[in-house]
Amino acid sequence: MSAVPESRLLKKLRSAERAVDASSVALFRLGEMCNNKCPMCSNTGRPAAFFIEEEELLRRVTFLQQQGFSRVVLTGGEPTIHPSFWRVVEALGRHAMAWDINTHGRSFADPEFARRAVREGLGRAIVSLHSHRVEPSMAIFGVSERGHHETVAGIEHLLAERVWLMLNCVLSSLNLDHIEEYVRFCVERFGTRYVLKLVFPSTTGKGGGWEPIHLTYAEAGPVARRARQIAREAGLPMVFESFPNCVLDAPKARNAGRSGFGETHYLEDIEGAQVFPIDHIETSLSVYGPQCSGCRALRRCPGVAETYASRVGTAELTPFLKDPPDPAR
Fold this sequence. Notes:
Low-confidence stretches: none
Shape: globular
Strand order of the largest sheet: 7-6-5-4-3-2-1-8-9
Number of strands: 11
Mean pLDDT: 94
Radius of gyration: 20 Å
Structural class: alpha/beta
Order of helices and strands: EHHEHEHEHHEHEHEHEEHEEH
Helix content: 25-40%
C-alpha cells in the first residue's frame, strides 16, 4: 500500500457555522490534566490547555448558557480530578443545564462519588476500558493495577446507578489479539445495558507516535467484524469510531464519531470564547479515496484520517456499489 496523491483524495464539506438550538450539545473541556498517563493520549499537550482556573470555568458555563446550550459534555484530560469539578457541576445546575461526562471512570470507583454525580444531574457517561486483562490495560492507560481495577469498579457503580453508559475501547497491538474475549468479558461482567464503542486509533494527538496504535485497517477490520458478530449474538449494542463502513463490511453500521453523545459543538479550550461545529472539525480531518465517490455508504461513512491516508494510503477501501449486481443474472 502507498499514499494517494493529495490532489486525488476526496473530502466532505461541512459548514464552519452551525446555529445553536434546543438539540445542541457542547463539548466542554475542563483542561487536559489527567491522572492516567496513556501513551496514546489524543490531547494536544499544549501548556495553556493543561489547567483552567475555576473562575474561568464558571465564566464558560455562563457563556455556553448565553449561547443557547442546555446540555454539555464535560471532558478533559480527566474532568473529575479538576479541583473545581463539583463547582462547575453546581453552576450547570443553577443554569438548568444538563450534563454528561467523558471519563476514565476511576473517580466513580467511590460509590458515593457516583451517587453524588447522579444526584447532581449526571445523565450519560462514556468510560474508556481498553482491555479486561490487567497487564495490557496498565500499559495502555499508563497506570498501576489499582488504576485498572478502579476503572472496572467505576463502570459497575455507574451502571448500578442506572447511568446511560458507553464503554469506549481503542484498538492497539496490545489488545488486538483478545478483543473477542474482551467483548465476552464485558457481557459477563457488566451485562448488556450499555453501548460498546470500538475505536480505530487516532495518531493526531500528543501520543500519536506511540507504535502500538499504528495499525492498519487490514489488521483491525477482521477483529472489528468478529467483535460485532459476538456483540450482536449477545444482544450488546455496538457502535464504531473511525471505521469506514467497507472495512466493517456493513454499509449501515453506525459510526459514533470522535465524541459519542452526538455533540454538535466544541467550546474552544484556550480562550473559551468561541464554539465550532463538531461535524466541520471531524470532516476537515477525514478523507476518502477516489474510488469512494461511487459508494452507496458514502453519506454515513467517516472516511479515514488524513494522517492515515498519508501513511498507508486508501487502497484498503472497497466501495459498496450503488446498484448491487442482480444475483439472478
